[in-house]
């Protein structure tokens, strides 16, 4: 079962529908085979029982015509030519009887008991024909008394022939009834087995269709849910799908993408916090230096009071500048870390975009597999329609057999009393044809039920197709979200570049201020006469510190913006 779960989705669907096609083909073949057996049974009954009974009925009818013709030849015909006409009719009837008996004997499989009765018929006919020849001679001689003298013997011989023919007809009727009973038993057995096989096939088809649909839709829904959560910025979830099919590969790729994004956002968040802390320290140092510079200015204004006070202030300013320089170095290091994190973020986001692209390709592949499965179901529907057409042909055969039975019943009615046995067989054939027609109708209904189940399977496939299309839509949204993330990361990179440039400017300004402070200290130590120069230097230092303070505020705002961007993601 694990091996089947790891198969590709298209292979799963094709295997399921091939199995369903085999089941439908087996059911159709079994039904066609049973219909063929029923048709063979009908053909056997017609060839081996209906046709022989028809031959015997014709013999019996011809025998009655001979009796009527010899009577008319003796008592009705007055001229020799008229008598000759009756004799010709009698000879023609005798030839017809011989032909019917020959067709009866050679046209069917003769049982031993049937052959024994037929062997008794030939001597009886010979005896009857012998007396018939004597009756013809009396007719030509116009000897009615002579004919009446042999009439009892003639009647006994004729009754013997008629009895033998009746025995043969009764035997064939009994055999036809037995064949009908066997056919009915075979029909009911085939009907029961066909219903059982069809029910089992329908249940298997439903179970397989439901299992395949769940096998595809359940993990796919998990992946779709994860994609929606990632699109909303929630990176705290993952999937536990471990299959090797397209959905499993898609889930593994999504998990890897979520882990990469989670690590990326954590690094960016940590770096932004460090930048914020460094910018706060820089702001504090700048304020401290500004205050020191103001004190230096005040000291310069009162430089006449003493160079020592100015020197102390300048030393304090030098200490503040050292702190500023250290802060600027920390900012530079943080800027480098942020730049590296930004580069990693951009790389991971691009990788995530590639994962989403692969996800889209996998979703399209699943969509194509579902379309191929839908086409396979439509093909199976066409095959079931072809089986229905075959059933219609068999129904037409049963209708034709019913018409033949009706014609046989009409001929039996024309034969009167002597055609009753033939009428019974014709009625049995008609019933068997009606049963075959009902069986064909039931098979047609069962095929219709199979087609209904195929329609339901097609609806399930359409539902899976809808889920795949919904997944494609969500994956598209996720791809758009990654594009937004890439744009945001580009903006962060630009801001980080600005921060680096600002840090370089701050470093240059700090060095310049440090040089100015050193010069001011030297000048203060050398002479108080240089107080104007020191005042100018301190003013430049104050302006530089204002620039540093402004730059540190900008850096703080950038760090806050970066934190706001990162806070949209839950890790």
The ordered string of helix (H) and strand (E) elements is: HHHHHHHHH
The parts where pLDDT drops under 50 for at least 5 residues are none
Percentage of β-strand residues? under 5%
Give the distance, in angstroms, between the N- and C-terminal Cα atoms.
36 Å
Largest sheet: none
Task: Please estimate the helix content.
Answer: over 70%
Which structural class fits the helix and strand makeup? mainly alpha
Summarize model confidence as the mean pLDDT: 78
What overall geometry do the principal axes of the alpha carbons give?
A: rod-shaped
Q: What's the total number of strands? A: 0
Radius of gyration: 56 Å
The DSSP helix count reads: 9
Region (Disordered): 517-538
Transmembrane segments: 12-32, 193-213
Keywords: Cell membrane, Chemotaxis, Coiled coil, Membrane, Methylation, Transducer, Transmembrane, Transmembrane helix
Pfam families: 4HB_MCP_1, HAMP, MCPsignal
Q: What are the main properties of this structure?
A:
92% helix; 571 residues; cell membrane; mainly alpha; HAMP_dom; 9 helices; rod-shaped
Description:
The structure is a single chain. The chain has a domain at 230-333 and 476-567. The chain is mostly helical and 571 residues long. 35% of the residues are buried. It is built from nine helices and no strands. Residues 214-266 form the HAMP domain. The chain crosses the membrane at residues 12-32, 193-213. One of its GO terms (biological process) is signal transduction.
Summary, kept brief:
Pfam families: 4HB_MCP_1, HAMP, MCPsignal. The chain is mainly alpha-helical and 571 residues long. Helix content is 92%, strand content 0%.
């Amino acid at each position: 079962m694990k091996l089947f779960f790891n198969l590709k989705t298209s292979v799963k669907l094709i295997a399921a529908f091939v199995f369903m096609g085999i089941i439908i083909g087996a059911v159709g073949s079994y039904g066609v085979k049973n219909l063929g057996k029923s048709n063979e049974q009908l053909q056997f009954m017609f060839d081996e029982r209906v046709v022989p009974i028809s031959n015997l009925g014709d013999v019996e009818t011809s025998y009655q015509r001979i009796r009527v013709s010899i009577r008319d030849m003796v008592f009705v015909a007055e001229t020799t030519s008229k008598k000759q006409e009756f004799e010709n009719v009698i000879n023609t009837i005798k030839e017809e009887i011989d032909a019917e008996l020959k067709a009866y004997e050679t046209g069917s499989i003769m049982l031993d008991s049937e052959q024994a009765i037929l062997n008794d018929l030939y001597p009886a006919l010979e005896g009857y024909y012998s007396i018939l020849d004597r009756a013809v001679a009396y007719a030509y001689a116009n000897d009615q008394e002579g004919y009446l003298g042999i009439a009892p013997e003639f009647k006994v011989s004729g009754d013997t022939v008629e009895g033998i023919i009746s025995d043969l007809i009764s035997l064939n009727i009994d055999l036809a009834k037995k064949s009908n009973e066997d056919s009915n038993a075979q029909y009911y057995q085939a009907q029961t087995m066909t219903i059982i096989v069809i029910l089992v096939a329908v249940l298997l088809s439903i179970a397989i269709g439901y299992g395949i649909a769940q096998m595809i839709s359940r993990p796919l829904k998990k992946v779709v849910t994860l994609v929606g959560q990632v699109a909303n910025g929630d990176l705290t979830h993952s999937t536990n799908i471990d299959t090797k099919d397209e959905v499993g590969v898609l889930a593994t790729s999504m998990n890897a993408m979520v882990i990469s994004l989670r690590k990326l956002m954590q690094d960016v968040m940590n770096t932004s916090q460090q930048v914020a802390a460094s910018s706060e320290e820089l702001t504090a140092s700048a304020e401290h230096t500004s205050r020191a510079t103001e004190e230096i200015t005040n000291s310069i204004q009162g430089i006449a009071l003493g160079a020592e006070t100015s020197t102390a202030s300048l030393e304090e300013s030098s200490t503040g500048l050292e702190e500023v320089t250290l802060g600027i170095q920390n900012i530079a290091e943080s800027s480098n870390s942020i730049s590296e994190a930004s580069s990693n973020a951009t790389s991971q986001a691009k990788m995530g975009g590639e994962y989403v692209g692969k996800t889209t390709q996998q979703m399209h592949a699943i969509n194509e597999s579902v379309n191929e499965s839908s086409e396979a179901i439509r093909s199976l529907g066409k095959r079931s329609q072809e089986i229905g057409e075959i059933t219609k042909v068999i129904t037409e055969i049963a209708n034709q057999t019913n018409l033949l039975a009706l014609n046989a019943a009409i001929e039996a009615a024309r034969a009167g009393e002597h055609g009753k046995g033939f009428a019974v067989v014709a009625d049995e054939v008609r019933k068997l044809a009606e049963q075959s027609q009902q069986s064909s109708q039931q098979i047609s209904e069962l095929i219709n039920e199979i087609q209904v189940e195929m329609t339901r399977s097609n609806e399930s496939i359409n539902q899976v197709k809808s889920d795949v299309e919904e997944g494609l839509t969500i994956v598209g949204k996720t791809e758009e979200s990654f594009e937004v993330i890439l744009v945001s990361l580009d903006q962060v990179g630009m801001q980080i570049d600005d921060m680096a440039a600002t840090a370089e400017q701050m470093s240059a300004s700090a060095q310049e201020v440090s040089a100015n402070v050193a010069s001011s200290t030297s000048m203060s130590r050398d002479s108080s006469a240089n107080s104007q120069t020191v005042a100018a230097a301190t003013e430049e230092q104050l302006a530089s510190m204002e620039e540093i303070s402004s730059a540190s505020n900008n850096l703080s705002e950038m760090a806050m913006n970066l934190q706001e961007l990162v806070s949209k993601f839950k890790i």
